[in-house]
Design a protein that fits this description.
By secondary structure, the protein is mainly alpha-helical. It has eight helices and no strands.
Length: about 180
């Protein structure tokens, strides 16, 4: 009876402590077929993007990401596709949603590669177009940290000038 209780205790201990650790290990990277599918979808998306077929391009980039979530280029092109649909200065809710979708994709790229200067520049520029000057400044500073000294300083100064020229609202924020 004592042996049975010890065995039962070990099984319970294993299932509570060790099983989750074993099961929580990362899955291996995508299979070669997934990577090939992702690369094919990416290439088809780039071709559609270059021919200004943005909805088709978005579909291909999403399929590439589904096949290989670590494919940074697919996120970059997906964000660029959203940027093509964004109209600077428009306060339309759909337009703002498109801008936010682009921001989300660029942030995924930066999560995967924090020093990706094209994503940093694009985010800073998009925030500037959306008149979110504090966010733009943050990414221009980050651009300086990534080694793009001259361009970051010039654009950071542009944010300050634009922000200073906007009238203040009652909430202390500036509004166009």
């Amino acid at each position: 009876m004592k042996r049975f209780l010890m065995l039962a205790f070990r099984v319970v201990l294993f299932s509570i402590v060790l099983a989750p650790l074993v099961l929580a290990q990362e899955k291996p990277a995508g299979t070669p077929r997934d990577k090939a599918t992702a690369r094919t979808e990416l290439n088809q998306g780039v071709a559609a993007y270059r021919n200004a077929r943005y909805e088709e391009a978005e579909d291909h980039f999403r399929k590439a990401i589904a096949a290989e979530p670590s494919l940074t280029d697919a996120y970059m092109f997906l964000a660029a596709t959203y940027m093509e649909g964004y109209v600077p200065g428009s306060e339309d809710p759909d337009n703002i949603r498109i801008g936010e979708q682009a921001i989300e994709q660029y942030k995924i790229v930066l999560f995967q590669n924090p020093k990706q200067t094209n994503a940093i520049k694009s985010l800073a520029g998009l925030y500037l177009q959306m008149k979110r000057f504090d966010d733009a400044k943050t990414y221009y500073f980050r651009l300086l940290g990534a080694g793009a000294r001259r361009r970051g300083v010039l654009l950071f100064g542009r944010c300050d000038r634009l922000d200073a020229n906007l009238p203040a609202t009652s909430g202390g924020a500036r509004q166009a």
